[in-house]
Design a protein that fits this description.
The chain is mainly beta. About 15% of the residues lie in helices and about 40% in strands. The strands form 4 sheets. The chain has an 8-stranded antiparallel beta sheet with strand order 2-3-12-9-14-7-6-5. The chain is globular, with a radius of gyration of 17 Å.
Length: about 210
């Protein structure tokens, strides 16, 4: 039966003076059961983003959820546990479905929250283990990226100025991999200055020489 393992420890990864990640491996028991349930019951939708002067299909599927309609009861338990531990308030959460090795999301920050200087973003992974990269915002050098490589049932919580100063993403893989679902909770204290750059889903113009 899927349930949270309250005895699992949290490892704190201090990225810099103001950004951190907590990782709890195996936090959710029987995560594969939750994954299979969500795959077959959630009304998955294909997102679209404006890139390179046209709309393109986002290479993953998505859906929204809430305490009233969590997709699976244990995800409501997860939201309440995370909110209590980190003193965060979540209106709901999102689900992202990476169907195979070709699905991905580019390195980015969660700018839709706008206030990025003091946030809590929690990601619970279900299904296959595959790369999840984080790297400093001020570099394009992929060799600086750290792979957290979460497996089914692992919880990652990103805090402090992480969304302001660090990037994260799920790359495509060369080897075949079965699907993975991420449940994502986001909270901001709205401290500091709001970020005014375009969010991930806002139209952005690109040229062959780069973004403009």
């Amino acid at each position: 039966m899927p349930e949270i393992d309250s005895g699992v420890g949290f490892e704190r990864v201090q990225l810099d003076d103001t950004s951190w990640i907590d990782i709890a491996r195996g936090w959710l028991l029987d995560a594969d059961e939750v994954y299979a349930h969500l795959v077959s019951t959630v009304a998955w939708q294909q997102g679209r983003v404006w890139r390179y002067e046209r709309y393109i299909d986002e290479p993953r599927m998505g859906a929204g959820a809430s305490l009233a309609k969590p997709g699976h009861p244990v995800l409501a338990d997860a939201q309440q546990a995370i909110a209590t531990k980190y003193n965060a308030r979540f209106d709901g959460f999102g689900l992202a479905y990476y169907r195979d090795s070709r699905d991905s999301v580019a390195m980015h920050r969660d700018r839709e929250m706008r206030w990025l200087e003091d946030t809590v973003v929690a990601i619970l992974t279900l299904g296959a283990q595959r790369p999840f990269l984080v790297q400093p915002r001020n570099t394009r050098d992929r060799s600086t990226a750290r792979d957290l490589s979460p497996a089914g049932g692992d919880l990652m919580v990103f805090g402090g100025r992480f969304q302001s100063d660090w990037l994260h993403g799920v790359p495509k893989t060369r080897r075949a991999v079965r699907g993975r679902i991420s449940a994502q909770w986001r909270y901001t204290t709205k401290r500091g200055r709001p970020d005014t750059n375009p969010g991930y889903y806002e139209p952005r113009e690109f040229t062959r020489k780069g973004r403009r």
